[in-house]
Amino acid sequence: MIEPASTRTLDFSWLIAGIWLLFLAFPLASMLADSSHDATEKTVASILIAVFCAVYLQGFRRLTRFEQLALSGGESDPTDIGSRRYFAALVVITLTIHVLVGVAALGVVPYVVAFAVFHFSWRAAWAVFIVAIAVTLYVPYDQGTLGDLWFLTLIVVAVGSATLLARAVEGHQHEQAILRTQLAVSDERTRVSRDVHDVLGHSLTAIVLKAELCDRLLDGITVAPGDDRGRFDAARAHLVELQSVGRGALSEIRTTVGGLRVADLDDEVTVARSVLGDAGVELTVLGDATDVDARHRPMLAWVVREAVTVDGRQTVVVRGAGSTAAGGGAA
Q1: pLDDT tens for residues 46-66?
Q2: For residue 233, what are the CA distances in angstroms to 109, 216, 219, 220, 230?
Q3: 31, 99, 265, 278: least buried by Cβ within 10 Å?
């Protein structure tokens, strides 16, 4: 969800979320000044607010660890059951505070919204946001204090909108970072494959040609039977073997270079159309290669490459998420 600037920055990024907890001092002060609640209720509510802060911070520290795992190449899913448990704990604490001190508990609702936005899917985050707005409207209205506490709804709307926007921006930055990394890897593979082909490929080709030339030059030489004849025949056998080894090495280099090169879906579809057209096979392409997620294009490019070895009618379907390349002929 954030651009991988440095692991050191991520180590303390959860503190940014903790800074906003300072604003809980306002609802806490309002609660303590309310004479309609006794000292016991206020004390328990204050302790619960402290527990709320601890759970909130721990949840964001956990999210930071997931982000660090993702940056190091591991699999991470910050929206798993653990995050839902932290969220449930925050909701239970909020409800308990409400039972003790009433509408003063609404002061922690914006933090519940912020937690949901950064830990849950977009759909779940929006659901929590909408429910929070409804709660901050209904509870004061039910108790006849909406005229005094209307600003709580405004705060929830502001916090929810800001965190949703921040998540969208950070997600976009993270996607850009992934694409830059993939592009760098692709460029490096292309460079390595080109160097391998240019250096080793040309050298091996020259060796094979030289071996063939030497073999042909020996065709016009006649050697009398004896020790020299044996060495002559052995030399020719080694030349033939050298040609065979050289051709095998060239084949392996071409295979290796082909594996290093990243297949391009658009190029493979174009080649497939040309190859199948020459073979009298009708090709139908639905959609465009650019509609496919960039992460899945190389894999689907290889699928298309393999799929062109068919007879009959071939259909390649190109879609966005969950794209497929489906063949209508017989392989």
Answers
A1: 999 999 989 988 888 877 666
A2: 92, 13, 11, 13, 5
A3: 278
